[in-house]
Structures are given as C-alpha cells and as structure tokens.
Amino acid sequence: MNLETSDILIVDDAEANLHLLAEVLKHAGLPHRTAANGTLALQAVSASPPDLILLDVRMPGLSGLEVCRRLKADDRYSDIPIIFISGMDSSDDMIEGFSAGAVDYIAKPFQFDEVLARISTHLSLRTTQKRLQSANEMLQNEIAERKRMEEESRRSQRTLRLLNEITQIAAGALNFADLTQSLADRLGELFSADGCFITMWDPVRKVTTPLAASGPLRDSYARLKPFENELTATESVLKIEHALAIADIHNSPYISPQIASQFSIVSMLALPLIAFGRVDDPTDFSMLGAALVCFDQPHTFSPEEIAIGEQAAGQIGLAISKARLFEETSRRATQFAALYETAQDTAGLVDLPVLLRLLMERARQLLSAKSGTVYLYDEVNQELESVACSDGEIPLGTRLKIGTGMAGQVARERQALIVDDYVSWEGRADIYRDKQFRAVVEAPLLFSGELLGVLALYEVGDSTRKFTKEDAHLLSLFAAHAAAAVHSARLFTEARTHLGQLNRLSTILRAATTTDEMLPRLLEETLAALHASDGGIWIFNHAHTRLEPVVLRGALAEGRAAKIFERGAHRRFLADHQPVTSPEVSDDPNLPEGLRSQFPAQMGGAFVPIRSVEEEIGVLLVAVRNPRAIQPEETRFLSTLAEIAGNAIHRMRLYDLTNRRLHELQALREIDRAISGSQDVKDTLGILLDQTLSRLNIDAASVLLYKPTGKVLEFAAGRGFRTGTLKETRLKLGEGYAGIAAEERRVIHVQDLRGRHTDYLRSPTFLQEDFVTSYAVPLIAKGQLKGVMEVFLRELRGADQEWMEVLEALSTQAAIALDIADLIEGLQHSNLELSRAYETTIEGWAHALDLRERETGQHSQRVASLTERMARALGLDESEIPHIRRGALLHDIGKMGIPDRILLKSSELNDEEWRIMRQHPLFAKEMLSSIEYLQPAVEIPLFHHERWDGKGYPYGLKGEEIPIKARIFSIIDVWDALTSDRPYRPALPEQEVLKYIRLQSGKRFDPSVVKVFFQIIAEPAL
User: Fold this and answer.
1) pLDDT by residue (tens digit) across 114-164?
2) Which of the 8 DSSP states describes residue 600?
3) pTM of the prediction?
4) Which long-range contacts (CB under 8 A, 24 or more apart) does 488-491 make?
5) Quick check: 191 pLDDT over 90?
6) Cα gap 82→97, rounded to integer Å
7) CA distance 227 to 204
8) List of residues 6+ apart from 1011 with CB closer than 8 A
9) What SS3 state is found at 795?
10) Residue 172, Cβ density class (10 Å: 0-12 exposed, 13-18 middle, ≥19 buried)
C-alpha cells in the first residue's frame, strides 16, 4: 500500500486535538478525514472504509471503545487497524483498548514523529497482510480447481460406466419387468437423483402408465393407477420430442398440479423414450413413454447433463422396444400352442358342464385374464345364461336378453367386442351396475353360423390391464374351437336328456310342493322335451266356470293368445277327456271359432286335458310352428304327462290349503311382532295393510281412525291406491259405507260398486281407482270403536268363509294395534311432562348457581346452547345432545360444596383455598352420580377443568384422555366468561378473547375442537 494514497480517519471530540492531528498528517502528506464523535465515525466508515483509524478513547455519547467494538464485530470492517489516542496514560484504558481490538495505544501529549512512525508501521503491516491474503486465496482457488477437475474426471468415468451398463442391459435383457427396473436404477444412479421414473404412454387411451422407479417409490410406483385426464410430464415431453428440463414441477405448464401435488419432487429432467423402426427412415418411430429424472431440491440441469440423459434415453427406448417385441413373440407362440392343446383336450369330451369350465379356464389362461364367464344362448327366450364363471362375480344362471349389456351386443352382432372400463361404459347391463368390472373382451361362440353362446374375459377391482385388438382376434379363434366342442357335447347331452325325460318330469312333479312352483317347470320341461318354444297351461276356475291362463311361453304369451279359451271354448277339451291335435289351429273347422280367431297364425298344437280322478283341472297346450306338427308318439307322451300332472296338482291343492293356513298364522304372528316392537302406529298399520293385501289377494286397503272428540273417521294409512283420493277422507258416523260399518259395528260388503251412487263413489279421482268390490270392517277393541278397515278389489269376486275369517282376524289385529297405540301415546305424554319437569328443575339449579356466583345474564343457558351447537358440528350422536346440555347447565354444580368465603372472595386465593376450590369437580361427581337421570351428564362437570397439555384438574388428564364433551365445553366456558361482564371486571373485547383461545390451542384446548369453535363463532346462531 502506498502511504501517499492511504485513507486515514481521525476521530476526536476535542476540536483542538482533531485540528492538530489533521495538520500533522497534512504536513506528512498523508490523506485523511475527520469525525467529531463516535456516531459520525461509524457513518464515515460505512460510507467508505478507511485504511486506518485514529480513535479517541474518551468521547461523550458513543465512546471510542464502543466504536472499536462495533467495527470489530462487523466482518466488513474488522480488519481495519485502529490506534487509540488518549489524554490519559492509564494502564486500564490501554488494556481495555487492546481488548476491544485496537492495534496500538498512544497517550497525550505525544511526539509527532512517533505518531507518524506508528501509523506508517501499521499501514505497512496491513499492506503485507492483504498481499498474503491474496496469495492464499489464489492458492485455495488453484486447489479447488484441481479438485473440481479430479471430480469431473471421476464423474465422467462414472457416467461412461453407467452409460455402458445401460447399453449392455439394453442389448441383453429380455424380461420386461426386470429390464425396466434395472434401467430405472441405473438412470437414477447416473444422475445421483432422488428418484427416477419410467412411464409408458398409451396413444389410444391417452393415459400414462407407471412402469418402474428408483428411489423411495421403487416398490410401489408400478402399482399406481394410470393418470387419466391429467397433463403428465410424459405426454408433454413426447409432444416436443426432446428433453425437457423443469426447474419446479409445482409451477410448470408441462405437468398438472394434481399430479405434482402427489410427489415431493421439485426439479425434473423429462426424457422422451422413442423407438425408431428403420435407420434409413426417420419417420418410422413410436412414442413409448418417458424417463423422468427427479430431485427433491431445486436443481439446474446443465447442457452436458441433458445430453447424457438423451443418450441414455435412446438406449432405454431401444431396450424397451426390443423386450416388448420378444415378449409379444413369445406370448403368441404360447397362445397358439395353447389353442392346439385345448383342441386336443376337448376332442371327445361330452360332459357339457365339465367342458364349459375347461374352456373358460383355458381361455382365461390364454389371455392371462383374471376372470372369465361362459354364456349359452337360449333361443326360445332369446336370452344368454351364465353357465360357467371362474370367480363367482357373475352368478350361475344369470340371464341377459339379446342386445342387453356387452354379452347381449356380442350375441346380436356376432362379433368380438372390447370395453376398456365396464364400470363407466354406457351400455352396461343393469344387473351388473354394482360390479367393479374393468377391461372386458368378449367373443361369440359360433358353429356353422349358429349362435351357441358368448365367451367373456374380464378384469376386476383395481386392475389397469387393457385388452387389445390382438387379444380379441385370439379370443375369436379360441371361441371357434370352443363352439365346435360345445356343439358336439350338446348333441350328446340332448340325446341322453331325451331318454330320461319322462322320468325326470315325473320326479319334478313329485318334488314340487306348490302349483306355482310346479306348473312353470312342467311347461318348460315339456317344451324342452318336444323342442318347442310355444305353449301354455290353463287352470279351470270353478267359481267363474272358465279356463284361466297360468303359464304362457313364446307366441302364446303375446297379444290375444291368452284368451283362446274364452266364450266356452274350454268345454270342447274338458268334456271328452281326450287330447286334440291340429296341424294349423287358426284354420281348423273342428275347433271352436272363438279359439281359432285368437290363436296365432301358421301354428299347430296339441290340446291335452289335465285331470285327476276327482275333477277336471285344466288344459296343457304345446304349439309348434309350421311346417312341423305334433307327432302321435308326442301326443301319447303329453297324455301320460298330463295324467301325472293332474294327480300332482290335486295333491298340491290339498297341500296349498294346509300351507295357506300356516301362512295366515305367520302373518298374524308378524303383525303381533310389529305391534309389540313398534311405537309408531303408522309403521304398524303399514305392515298390517301389506299383510292384508298379500294374504287376501286384494288390490287396495286402508284404515280410518275414529276421533271421539268429533265423532268422525279420518284416513290413517293405505296401500295399493292409484290416487290420493282417500287421504282426505273425513266421515261422520253413518256417512258412507265406512261410517255405516262404524255406527252399526258390523261388516258392510258391497259386491258391485259400479251400481252405487254415493257422493264419494261419484268422485272423478275415486273412479280412476276402478274399484268393483269393497268391504268395510269396524275395528273394535275392549268394546271401544277404534276405526274402520276398508278393502277394495278391482274385479267382481265372491268371498268364501275362509277368506272372511282371514279378513276378520286381520281386522282384530288392527284394532289391537290401535288400542296399544293409544296406550303408548298416553304414556309418552306422561313421560314428556315428567321430562319437562326434570329439565325445568335442572335449569333452576343452573340459575341458582349463576346467582350465587354473581354471574350476570344467563351464563349457564348461553354455554349450554353453544355447547349443543359445537357437539352437533363435531358429529356427536344426537342422542347425546340432551345429556350434553344438562352437563353444561350443571357444570359448576360442585361449587355448591365450596364455602362462600372462598367462592365469593374478591382477592386472589391462597394455596389452601385453591386446593379446596379444585375439589368442586369431585363434589359434582358425588352429587350427580347418585341421580340415575343425570349420570350421563357427569362428564362435563367432572372434567371441564382438565387441560389438553395435562396441567388441569382434578386428575391431570391429557389430550384425548379427556372426554370430548368436556373438551368442547372447556372452550365455551372460557369464551363466555371472558366476553361477559363480571363484578370484578368488565367483559374483554371479543378479538382479544379469540386471540387468547387461539394461543391456548394445543395447550389448554384441543386444537381440533378450537378449529370447529372458530367456525361456529363465525356463523349466526339459529
């Protein structure tokens, strides 16, 4: 440092000394500045640091010692040499000056030559120090550069090694899963990244599929669901077709915030994985996916890192493409081998169920599908039936109409179909709406153009697998082999079935317990035995002397065919007791004209009477379409079958009578249970009316309650009505059929309402009901009229003694139900009055407590109401709310045991007084626990002084050890106390109280309850 260019700062509060030193330095040719006090000195140093400071020790305000200490404490000025000048030659000042950081100390008076010499010496030392420091910095920079070059060399070697390993993996690995995991591991190691992810891109579905990862998500990444309808880094980098460096994924247009929020990543290098087909054709490529190199902290990617990443991505894309091709080739070879093996195994297999299960399992294995189902086609009903299922998701016997659902569409179009997500597919069948089917592929079973069924494979649950067009083609090839095997097995099965048909039908008839169960099976088995699709069974109604259709199939179930035995046509078949066959019924002059006019055209049939030894029962009809005709041997088969069926029906009718009696007893028992188990008369009446409709086989029923005060009947419950016309019913005694039944206390039966002309029967809305027959039954219990039950039918029907007995039994049950309901209502009213008395007493106690403690306003009522709101907001059970309110009202009931001298003391309590005061929760427990009605309310009085941090009383409970009710109330109690005036202080401002409660969250109060408290406070009270 040149002394003539150095900068010296003189600091002295004595103007004479300041001027004298300035003149000395000026005379010596040394540049200098001056400062008259410590504050100005610091400002001068801050504006331009000097090379040396002459500093007076003693100055008013900021002393020289303090100025020195401040400068030495600041790294920017700590190396400036400071020489203290002082008018006192004190050893203490000298020691203190050197301790503060000064390099020299000169006492006044001083020799100017000596001062200049010391200044020169210290300036020279500082110059030498700076030169040494500069040399040291140069040496450190040189060492750092060498280390950097060595690290760069090691990194380059490591990079080349890892790139070589990636290339070797790409060249040799064929197992797809192992390959992608190894590549992810090497790529993560190459960049020393916090995580590396390899994802695949589906260009058809436009979704990204997680494949492999290194880092924390190594074992779970591949199980993540595909990111659908969200912008991914993979999609973005494939669009631009080159590396993409993202500094912050949470603020990037290349990745959606929803995806970014799922990861702890900050920076990312996205590398496109592109597989090129031919070297000579740059347009022959496919977008495979992306490799994502990620860092948890901000990271800037250098051009060199990006170039290395793109080189690695090229090798990874090549490796993935190669492995995919190898796996696809191997899979196809395995699949065609499986096709050949299946054809060998199913040749000659005639057990159809075994064959179907084998075909389903082989198909599932062929496409590596999780589940499979085989449907067979029912040509008669135009339905598909599930006959084999691998996992039970589709129950055996499930039926789908042709065209319904995916299988129905495959059957109708006779082409394979793929659905990626059945749950969201708009064409899914209603019966499968609760099933979690995902990807589904189905193919038709076709043999010589004939539809035999449908073969379905599907994924369920969280599966992300999607079926391809190649899968559908392979399944179609398999289905063709399967259809041939099914056709052969069916022929064998049908032949074997036909041989045992009679025996089987006989067994069915013997096994059935009701005609409703037997007749449909009888018809279906009969039609199956004759390979017919159209038929029916008519049963003779002795009350109306006509044949009524019971079971119809095929064309006979449509249009007018059900009415073919009207207008006396039944006599032709029941009188002779012989079967009648006709090649074409509609043109047969030997048959009644009414029958011919109703019968479908171009159909023949066999009419076989069904009878027992004692009576004519009905007619069995099997119809066939021209040119086929019923053969004589088939007619004999039907006659034998009809005779067996007639005897079985007679036996079942006897059984039905017994069974009906049992059901009636069960219905009465169910009504008894409803009466005893429900306090809601509407529920009980609803059950009773349901049973009435079911057991009496009627169309509608209602119950009218008798109101003694007005002597009127009012509607209470109804079932089966099309309109609401009877809901406004209000009849006086003697008015209408119900009023007559009530007044005369007898059943009123109207056989045909259509000929009656009372006012309510002429009502337009009542006419919409189309009622024909009605019964009005008075409901009498213990000699008292309770109401009237009315039942309605929309047809002209007589009632036998058995039917009337059931009606009377049900009406008796209704009367009992209404009587019990009256008793319960009276009891509930008494209980309500008692409960109100209890609540009034509790509120009186609470008010007395407020008065004793000189509380202003309604403290207990306020805290109780707010505590109720808090409890509901926190989702506490509604049944707990009354107990919570009582506990809040009586929260300080224990203070009844605290002496007034302590409770009402205006000054601070001493330790002994506090010990007694803290006993009041225990006093509350003793007082309330002995009262059974108040036991559920004890928690708030006992625990509301406990604290979340465990520093409360009486037990020092902590956290969730404190009951939730007390945690809620403790906040409300403090809130109300602080925001209310007290004799010893005014109410605190609301914001100050809210601040206090917020500060006590996690200390005195439960944080989660505090959060809800602030939500409640922000809302207006209801």
Assistant:
1) 888 888 888 888 888 778 877 888 888 887 777 777 666 666 666 666 666
2) P
3) 0.32
4) 488/350, 489/349, 489/350, 489/351, 489/352, 489/355, 490/352, 490/452
5) no
6) 10
7) 14
8) none
9) coil
10) exposed
